[in-house]
């Protein structure tokens, strides 16, 4: 029987149900309930199966979206999971944390008038369901080689690289300074977006596939990078980008001013009961909290403060809501949970009394002409300064690269912004100026997304395989 392509007229877009608000405001668990089989099939069936699927082009790993939606609709979950893994190393993660409204779902033909197909939730459904039913990647056809590659950094870029390498018969050894894999997936993104058990399950699966993990090992301190370059046939470096921007505000030294990642990592490591947390817990219970910045990191901070029972939580952003860089879905979730948004405000200084934060001096802004990225610049409105009261301020302005010196010592060239120079379209994609060293993720792109880090890790693995076998 041929497919009814007008199904979207009868079946509306329905997102998976969210947990009760009262629970969400106190618990550090994922807020979305799993989709049922019936829901997933009904929502998959809304796909028009466009001849030229824009969703697939817009997805940075170019997932075969219409094809796996059809398999879900037919109940063929194992085949759908197999297909998901052909293009994506961590589909269960992307289904949870990709800003789909800006990527696949934003490009869905149904998006404007009928509501996009719930692509992200279905990607999560496929992988979670297949894993729960016992499906595992099948590597029985892979022919092992003698090549060995060191991967430094177990974030999404490093994990994706290791995944594709092992599928090409090349054994990766993944080094990370933290005791668990995932990088920012584990330590930055809070559990209400991505529960930590998801990465634990992934580590078991990758280990069973033959990937070696050397966790709790800091390269440059516990082992020398030069030794890895010598010992392995190639090295992939994906250390992320961690130098916090602080806007050079006055008063940053006051007690009660916190950097976003220190705040988030300290909270997550405490929830994970880690023995030697890299950052202490910062508890904002009972405080009037102001978070500066409107990106994904800012959203994670405001929602963490809500769950810590802050007295009030304000997100202050210098442009208007339409220009916020964070995912629309997460802004909506934050608002539902009780976060107050204040737009068109530029912080000027942290106000303190006896070195304890008492507020943030702000100036109102209006949007002027576009900058080089096409985003309208916020311009200060004269005579509009005021102080927003606060007991705690979290700075979430973003991150810039902080590559270690040992990379340059091995001949890896950096751009003027400090990112590693490694081109996706070169003969061996993502090879650096040292032919044996490849790199990807945030340290090449600058702070970006999980799925773009995965795309680069996968591209680099193909570059490494080609470099090793054609050398
Ligand atoms: P990372 O994830 O940073 O991983 C780098 C790894 O390298 C880390 O595990 C680190 O421990 C390790 N490492 C560093 N130095 C050494 C060393 N010397 N020796 C050994 N190991 C080392 N993106 C989204 O798509 N959706 C979101 O919702 C989202 N939310 C975010 C929330 C926050 C708070 C932040 C900060 C970022 C968020 N992002 C989000 C961005 C996303 O997490 C990053 O773009 C992505 O994780 C980058 O991957 P990566 O592998 O390049 O680096
Ligand atoms: Fe959409 Fe991200 Fe999945 Fe691609 S990986 S289909 S962008 S949710």
TrEMBL record:
The chain positions of domain Dihydroprymidine dehydrogenase read 26-134
Listed EC numbers: 1.4.1.13
InterPro entries, sorted:
DPD_II, FAD/NAD-bd_sf, FAD/NAD-binding_dom, GltD-like, Helical_ferredxn
Pathway(s) it belongs to = Nitrogen metabolism; Energy metabolism; nitrogen metabolism; Amino-acid biosynthesis; L-glutamate biosynthesis via GLT pathway; L-glutamate from 2-oxoglutarate and L-glutamine (NADP(+) route): step 1/1
| Keywords, sorted A to Z | 4Fe-4S, Amino-acid biosynthesis, Glutamate biosynthesis, Iron, Iron-sulfur, Metal-binding, NADP, Oxidoreductase
Q: Where is the FAD/NAD(P)-binding domain?
A: 147-457
Enzyme class, first EC level, given as a word: oxidoreductase
GO MF annotations for this entry?
4 iron, 4 sulfur cluster binding; glutamate synthase (NADPH) activity; metal ion binding
**Gene3D superfamilies documented for this protein:** Alpha-helical ferredoxin, FAD/NAD(P)-binding domain
Q: Which GO terms describe its biological process?
A: glutamate biosynthetic process
The cofactor(s) it depends on are: [4Fe-4S] cluster
**According to its UniProt record, which reaction does this protein catalyse?**
2 L-glutamate + NADP(+) = L-glutamine + 2-oxoglutarate + NADPH + H(+)
Q: Name one Pfam family in it.
A: Fer4_20
List, alphabetically, the PANTHER family matched: GLUTAMATE SYNTHASE [NADPH] SMALL CHAIN (PTHR42783), GLUTAMATE SYNTHASE [NADPH] SMALL CHAIN-RELATED (PTHR42783:SF3)
Function as written in the Swiss-Prot or TrEMBL entry: Catalyzes the conversion of L-glutamine and 2-oxoglutarate into two molecules of L-glutamate.
Q: What is this protein called?
A: Glutamate synthase [NADPH] small chain
